Every structure is written in structure tokens, then in C-alpha cells.
Amino acid sequence: MPTNPLKNLIYRAMLFRAPSPYKIMRHAASGQELHHLPYYEHLMVRHHVLGASLLLDDGHRRAQLHTTVTVPMHAAQEDTLYRVASITKMATAVATLSCIAEGLFTLEAPVASLLPDTPHASVMAGVTVRHLLSHTSGLNDLPTMDAALREGRSYDDVLAETAIRACEPGKQLIYSNFGFGLLGCILEQATGMSVAAVLQQRVFDPLGMRATLDASTLDERLIMPISRVLPYHPGADVTITPLGRQPVAVPDPLRHFGHTAGAMYTDAPSLARLLQLIHHRGMHEGQQLIPADLMAEMTRQQSATSTRKYGLGLVILDRPKLWPRRLLGHQGFAYGCVDGAFIEEETGRMVIFLNGGASEARKGKLGLVNQDVLRWALTKEMPSWT
């Protein structure tokens, strides 16, 4: 996955070897008619998108477009589910804030006191729940994490690695899937429920989302396969990962540290409900599901680098060259997908783009395909509806 300007340049130069949806994509549309569909198709070809679902909403009208690609066969329909990778972090943050509102712990609670006692808990000294939610825990992502998850070992095996700590807590934004995964362990320890049940009870059911963290319960035929377009390997599609095939119905706070960072399966209308909850500061259908003051913390900038601003489980896009108003949401990169779900803070206009694989080239930390879809939707497509 390209992560710096040089790698991006090399990656983009090699994209000619990637499969393309040119002349082999077909659409199923509903709601508001898209006035600039040919340009959207142009973006699909430019970024080698292998099947996608698009949802645009301007607060009055909604358009949905499901694009199927036939080589490889990536069929997109109204009931298609997507593994949305790090977009999961928004739902995890809302579930965590729900527990805080209930008084189970606080944003400033020491993480070591909320996790099962382990021999290497001292590594977590000074790390708070806020640090995990804002990626300021100072914890690195290490290969040990994936190996421990595959083998069913405790997160303590990851903490035992000398390279686990990059800096002191609160010093800088270091994106940490491991840190966000530990939030799942905290949720299980605090509630006595499995992490899948916690998000179902506190996020998915209240919002009416069609979503789950437990992929073992899903009909695999409903899931969009994901292919990495470069390097592309025919037949190497991913629907459910080996970890995802392991049920998470029973709580195991020592080992369930791989789900809350990126294991959610859902669809675009469900993500629209989550974005609207964030936009309305915790209010849903006249009910305050999450206190407004906690939602204000979620949407407030908590950390930043030169290329990223972050709240609590929330990417803050504040790029005048892309769009003059702030966008709130998240991206998801995993196994080749480059998903994006964003809402305009001022107006509530939404752009949700889920796919079965696309070019992973980036501008800063924002996928180029997400950048181009956002710009097309906000400056060209949705303005044409009025």
C-alpha cells in the first residue's frame, strides 16, 4: 500500500497493469437521478474501481448507485454488504461514548485499570481512553498483532514487544489499529458482553443499522468481494477474513483486540444513519442517544499531523483546496478497498463510497479516489440537483 509521495508515484505509474471497469460496469440506480454519471464512470475507470455502492444526500434528496463489474465479478446490489475497514472506528467511538455516558468509565480513565491484569500492563502507564480514541496513545502497530490474533493469543503478547511504544502518551498522533482494538477489550471488560453485542446494542440497533462486527453470522453471498488491484491476483478475493470467521458471541477481553479497529460489515444507508447521528450531535429521531457534550468531544480536533486531523474515532477533513467547509467521517483501507464516508459539518450533505477494490494511491492520507469522488459530488453532482 503506497504511503509516501515516492511510493505513490511508482504505484500510479504501474496502474496500467491493474484490472479496469472500462466497458464492463453496469449500474442499478434509485432515488435522485445523477446528472453527471459519465464523469463518475470516468473516475471509476481512472481509479480501477472493482464494483461499488455510492450514496449522495443533500438533506432533501438522496441518490444511490450500485455499480457491478463483471471481470472480476463484483456484483453490487441494494442488499450488498461491505467490510468497511477503519470506518468501523466511528461506530466504536460512539459505543465507547455510550459507555462513558452510562458512567462505566471516563475519557480520562487509565486504560491499564480497565483491562484484564496482564504481566506487561505497565507499558500502558499514562494511556487513557481519550488517547486510544484520538490515536495519541504512542502505541505502534506491529506484525505481532496480526500473528497474535490469528493464533488466538492475548494482547499481552503484543505489549511484550519492545517496539510497541513509539513515544509517550499524548505527545503525537500515531495511527494505531492496535490501540483502537484495545477499546474492544475495554468494552467487553466493562459491560460483560461480547464486543459484537456491545456495538449491536448501543449503536446498530438504536440507529436501525444493518451492520455487525461478527462476520461469522453473515451470508457470504451478500458480501462484496474485495480485490487488491495492484498487485492483482485473480481469484484472491476476500469476503470474510480467517479472523472474521471466528465467532465473537462470547466475550474474551484478552483476545478480542482485532475487531473494533476495522471489522464492521454494513451498507451505505446504515452508514448514513451513523453520520447523521454525528452531525446532529448524538440526536436520533428526537432522542438524545449520546450526550451532546460527548459528541462535541468526538467532533473536536484532538490530534493532528501535517496531513491528518483527528477527533475521537473521526477524521476531520479541513482542506480548503478540496472543499472550503469541514467534512467529518472516516476512510477505510483493507485488502484493496478504499472506502469513504463523510458528512459536511455545516450542511449535513453526505458522500458515502464503498467498493470492492480501487487504486490505493493517496494525497496525504486521503485516498485519491475518495478525494475525486468527494470533489465531484460536492462541486458538480449535488449542486446540479437544485
Descriptive report:
The protein is α+β, with helices and mostly antiparallel strands and 386 residues long. It has a domain at 1-80 and 318-386. The protein contains twelve helices and 16 strands. The chain has helices at residues 5-13, 37-46, 88-102, 111-114, 129-134, 143-150, 156-159, 177-191, 195-207, 268-279, 292-299, 368-381, and strands spanning 25-31, 52-57, 62-70, 73-74, 82-83, 265-266, 283-284, 287-288, 303-304, 309-310, 315-317, 327-334, 337-344, 350-355, 362-363, 366-367. The strands form five sheets. Strands 1, 2, 3, 4, 11, 12, 13 and 14 form an eight-stranded antiparallel sheet that branches. A two-stranded antiparallel ribbon has the order 5-6. A two-stranded antiparallel sheet has the order 7-8. The longest helix is centred in the first third of the chain and has 15 residues, at 88-102. It is globular and about 60 Å long. The chain starts with a helix and ends in a 5-residue tail after the last helix.
